[in-house]
C-alpha cells in the first residue's frame, strides 16, 4: 500500500513539474512577444512604449543619474522604475527568478538554444578556465554602465545594447547606423545561443550580474539531498548556466550564476533528491516557485497600473490608446509608405516652402539618423545644427532625430523642419 501511494505521489509530482515547465515557457514566450510587438508599434510610428521604457535596468541607470546630476535619464518613465523596483524585490526573495522565469531576452536565448539542440544534436560547453574568466565580463559591463550613468547622466549603453537592438528590429536603418554595434552583439548572442546555453546571460548581461549580487541576500536556493541523490548528473546537464548542480558545495547551489529556472529540479528522476526552498525543511515545489515569482512580479505592476503609476508611454501620448497612429504620423499602406511611417511622418505638403540644404529636404532625413550624421549630410557643423534645433551644446550627438525630437517635446516633422526655417 505504501509503495503504491509513493508511486502515485511521484506521478503527481512529475505532472506538476511538467505544468511548471509549461507555465515557464509560456511566460517567457509571452513576455518576448510583448516586447517585440510593443516596441514595433513605437518604432513604426504608432503609440507604444520604447524599448528603454520596458527595460528594468534603465531604472537603475536613471536613479544613479538623478543622484549624480539631479536629472532623470531621458526616455525613462515612471513605469520603468516600477519594473526596476519589482525585479529588485523579486531578487531579494527568489534570487534570479526574473532571469529564469520572466526575462524576454533570456527566453529568446533559450528558444534559440532549443533550436540549436535540434539542429546540431548537442550543446557545447566553454572550456572551464576560459568560462571562468568570461563570466566576470558581465560585472565589468555592470560597473562601466553604472559609472557612465553616474558621470554622463545618459543611457550610455544604448548603442551597444543587444536588447535595445531587439527593440528596433522594425527599423533596419537604425540597426545599421545608430545601433550597429548593439545589432552585431545581438547577432553574436543569437548565433552563440545556438550552441552555448544562455550565451549573453552568462558573459555580458549587466542586469543579470546585478540581480545575482542582490540575490545573495536571499535564503532561497536549490538544495540537493545527498542521501537521496543517485548521482546521475541530469541536474547538471540540463542547467542552462552550466552549473555543476550535482556537486554543489554543502548541497546548496549558492552561485550568483543560478537563474532559478528549476530545470534541474524538474529533470531529477528521484523524488525529493533535489528541491528549492528557503531552508532544508521549507521546501517549495517548482510549480509554486514559478507562480510565486510571477505573483511577485505582476502584483506590484498591477497595483501601479490600478493607481495610475504604471506609465510606460511618453507624456505626449497621455490618453492615447496603444496601437493608434502617433500624433503627426501616417501609417499603413503598401510599398514605401510603411517605410516612411517607420520614421513617424510622411511629408507630403509644404515641401516647396523650404529650400533644400546640400540637396536634402526635410522628408529625406529619417528619424533614425543621428544628429552627427544629419550634420554631415547637410554639410553643416554640429554647432550650427544644435543652434537651429535649439539643443544645448552638451547634448549627445549620437542621439537620433526621433529621440531628440521627443526630448524637445516636438513631433519629428516639426523638429526636422526647424533645420530649414
Could you describe the 3D structure shown?
The protein has 421 residues and is an all-alpha fold. The chain has 20 helices and four strands. The protein has a four-stranded antiparallel beta sheet. The longest helix is centred in the first third of the chain and has 42 residues, at 2-43.
Write the layout of secondary structure elements.
Elements lengths: L1 H42 L13 H13 L8 H17 L2 H6 L1 H17 L7 H7 L2 H16 L9 H5 L5 H4 L4 H16 L3 H5 L2 H10 L5 E4 L9 H5 L13 E2 L9 H5 L6 E4 L5 E2 L1 H21 L29 H7 L28 H8 L3 H8 L11 H7 L4 H6 L4
Antiparallel strand pairs: 1-2, 1-3, 3-4
Helix pairs in contact: 1-5, 1-15, 2-3, 2-7, 3-12, 3-15, 5-10, 7-12
From the spread of the alpha carbons, the general shape counts as elongated
**Parts with pLDDT < 50 across at least 5 consecutive residues:** 328-352
What is the number of E strands? 4
**Mean pLDDT figure:** 85
Radius of gyration: 24 Å
- Structure annotation, total helices: 20
* Class derived from helix and strand content: mainly alpha
How do the helices and strands follow one another from N- to C-terminus?
HHHHHHHHHHHHEHEHEEHHHHHH
Give the strand content: under 5%
Could you tell me how far the N terminus lies from the C terminus, measured between alpha carbons in angstroms? 89 Å
Can you list the strand order of the major beta sheet? 2-1-3-4
Helical coverage, percent range: 40-55%
Describe the sheet with the most strands. Answer: 4 strands, antiparallel
Keywords summarizing the entry:
mainly alpha; 421 residues
Short description:
The protein has helices at 2-43, 57-69, 78-94, 97-102, 104-120, 128-134, 137-152, 162-166, 172-175, 180-195, 199-203, 206-215, 234-238, 263-267, 286-306, 336-342, 371-378, 382-389, 401-407, 412-417; strands at residues 221-224, 252-253, 274-277, 283-284.
Amino acid at each position: 500500500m505504501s509503495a503504491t501511494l509513493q508511486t502515485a505521489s511521484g506521478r503527481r509530482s512529475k505532472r506538476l513539474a511538467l505544468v511548471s515547465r509549461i507555465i515557464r515557457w509560456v511566460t517567457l514566450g509571452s513576455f518576448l512577444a510583448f516586447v517585440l510587438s510593443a516596441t514595433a508599434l513605437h518604432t513604426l510610428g504608432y503609440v507604444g512604449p520604447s524599448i528603454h521604457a520596458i527595460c528594468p535596468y534603465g531604472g537603475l541607470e536613471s536613479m544613479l543619474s538623478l543622484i549624480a546630476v539631479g536629472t532623470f535619464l531621458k526616455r525613462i518613465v515612471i513605469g520603468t522604475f516600477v519594473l526596476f523596483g519589482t525585479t529588485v524585490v523579486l531578487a531579494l526573495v527568489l534570487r534570479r527568478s526574473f532571469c529564469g522565469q520572466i526575462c524576454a531576452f533570456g527566453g529568446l536565448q533559450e528558444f534559440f538554444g532549443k533550436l540549436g539542440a535540434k539542429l546540431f544534436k548537442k550543446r557545447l560547453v566553454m572550456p572551464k578556465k576560459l568560462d571562468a574568466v568570461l563570466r566576470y565580463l558581465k560585472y565589468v559591463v555592470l560597473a562601466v554602465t553604472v559609472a557612465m550613468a553616474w558621470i554622463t547622466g545618459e543611457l550610455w549603453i544604448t548603442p551597444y545594447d543587444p536588447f535595445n537592438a531587439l527593440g528596433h528590429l522594425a527599423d533596419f536603418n537604425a540597426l545599421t547606423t545608430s545601433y550597429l554595434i548593439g545589432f552585431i552583439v545581438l547577432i553574436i548572442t543569437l548565433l552563440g545561443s545556438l550552441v552555448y546555453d544562455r550565451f549573453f546571460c552568462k558573459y555580458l548581461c549587466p542586469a543579470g550580474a546585478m540581480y545575482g549580487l542582490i540575490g545573495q541576500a536571499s535564503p532561497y536556493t536549490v538544495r540537493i539531498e545527498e542521501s537521496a541523490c543517485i548521482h546521475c548528473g541530469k541536474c547538471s546537464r540540463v542547467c542552462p548556466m552550466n552549473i555543476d548542480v550535482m556537486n554543489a558545495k554543502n548541497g546548496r547551489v549558492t552561485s550568483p550564476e543560478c537563474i532559478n529556472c528549476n530545470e534541474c529540479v524538474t529533470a531529477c528522476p528521484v523524488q525529493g533528491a533535489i528541491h528549492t526552498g528557503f531552508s532544508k525543511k521549507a521546501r517549495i515545489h517548482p510549480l509554486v516557485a514559478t507562480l510565486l515569482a510571477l505573483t511577485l512580479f505582476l502584483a506590484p505592476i498591477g497595483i501601479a497600473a490600478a493607481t495610475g503609476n504604471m506609465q510606460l508611454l511618453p507624456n505626449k501620448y497621455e490618453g492615447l490608446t496603444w496601437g493608434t497612429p502617433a500624433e503627426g504620423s501616417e501609417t499603413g499602406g503598401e510599398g514605401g509608405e510603411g517605410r516612411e511611417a517607420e520614421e513617424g511622418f510622411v511629408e507630403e505638403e509644404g515641401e516647396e516652402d523650404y529650400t533644400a540644404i546640400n540637396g536634402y529636404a526635410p522628408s529625406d532625413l529619417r528619424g533614425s539618423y543621428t544628429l552627427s550624421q544629419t550634420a554631415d549630410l547637410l554639410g553643416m557643423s554640429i554647432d550650427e545644427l544644435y543652434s537651429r534645433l535649439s539643443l544645448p551644446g552638451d547634448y549627445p550627438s549620437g542621439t537620433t532625430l526621433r529621440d531628440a525630437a521627443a526630448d524637445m517635446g516636438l513631433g519629428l516633422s516639426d523638429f526636422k523642419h526647424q533645420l530649414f526655417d
